[in-house]
Write a structure and sequence with these properties.
The protein has 305 residues and is mostly helical. The protein has helices at 8-55, 58-63, 79-110, 113-125, 131-149, 159-182, 186-194, 199-210, 212-227, 231-236, 254-265, 271-304.
């Protein structure tokens, strides 16, 4: 009986297919782990929030505008924390969206290669700065500067932290948007130039619309980062849960409250301690809604362009 001989080419194909199969399984496991972690977070928040809602009605939780878990007369109106979260986030977006988008357009369409390779790493360094540094930057520098223009501004307010949060998330918008713009085919630029468009017109009317899905994705990332910010607002906003959308007043955000309770302000097992899971669940739902809205907007623009 003749020995079975495997050709070198067949053996090479077998090894390649085997390696690709291992890589495929590894990628699948990574996706499963990510889904499992997300599901576990949701499960823990829901399970831990159920005892809280056995003592506090969902209607009072969503409609009451007073949040006083440490007082003798306790109120658990999440709107007092939601208002602070939304106000600081909106201020941050007002600062970050124009700056980040303009920076992305400049880096993608106008900056030279040397300038781009210099500015972009510097921008991305902001991502590595600890947020506690940004918090003291807002408290010790930005707020005093604003007080020179608006003397009635209190030391703790939402305006200063909101502006600094906007500065902090500029790299997210600039980097992702610039990558999306540079991914637009060069043929679209050349076609615009052939029609007589200037570089500015090409950037605004051709490149930016074509990269809208990526630009919107950067906005989603920035919103999620701003909503979940903790230390800046905890240091510079005052941690006073007031139901107000006035940026010159002090307020507390959902994340700042969770941090204060986690440091030991309330005993474990009490309704006040369980409220951090209800607040965390609210923050999760807010982030989920914003991501769904952003995904829908990105899909809408992708179909249009």
């Amino acid at each position: 009986m003749q020995d079975l001989v495997i050709s070198p080419g067949l053996a090479k194909n077998f090894r390649r297919n085997f390696v690709e199969r291992i890589i495929e399984v590894g990628l699948l496991l990574s996706a499963v782990v990510a889904v499992f972690i997300t599901s576990a977070i949701v499960y823990i928040l829901v399970v831990e929030a159920i005892p809280f809602f056995q003592h506090v009605s969902l209607y009072d939780f969503l409609t009451d505008t007073v949040w006083t878990p440490n007082y003798s007369i306790k109120h658990y109106g999440i709107m007092a924390l939601v208002s602070g979260t939304l106000t600081t986030t909106i201020i941050a977006l007002i600062v970050a969206v124009p700056l980040g988008t303009i920076t992305a357009i400049y880096l993608s369409e106008f900056a030279s290669h040397k300038t781009r390779e210099t500015i972009k790493p510097i921008l991305e360094l902001l991502v590595g700065v600890p947020t506690v540094v940004f918090g003291y930057f807002a408290l010790m520098l930005v707020t005093p500067l604003i007080q020179k223009i608006y003397p009635d501004l209190t030391t703790f307010n939402m305006l200063g932290p909101g502006i600094v949060m906007g500065i902090m998330i500029v790299p997210y918008i600039a980097s992702v948007s610039e990558d999306a713009m540079r991914a637009v085919p060069m043929a679209m630029r050349e076609g615009a130039y052939a029609m007589g468009a200037t570089r500015f017109q090409t950037a605004i009317r051709v490149i930016a619309p074509a990269a809208t899905s990526g630009i919107v994705a950067s906005y989603i990332l920035a919103v999620s980062r701003a909503v979940g910010e903790t230390m800046i607002v905890a240091i510079a906003a005052g941690q006073q849960p007031n139901f107000t959308f006035n940026p010159v007043e002090s307020a507390a955000t959902i994340t700042a409250y969770i941090v204060s309770v986690a440091l030991g302000d309330l005993e474990h097992g009490t309704v006040g301690y369980q409220s951090i899971f209800a607040a965390g669940l609210t923050l999760l739902i807010m982030t989920l809604f914003l991501n769904i809205l952003g995904h829908w907007t990105r899909k809408k623009f992708s179909e249009r362009y």
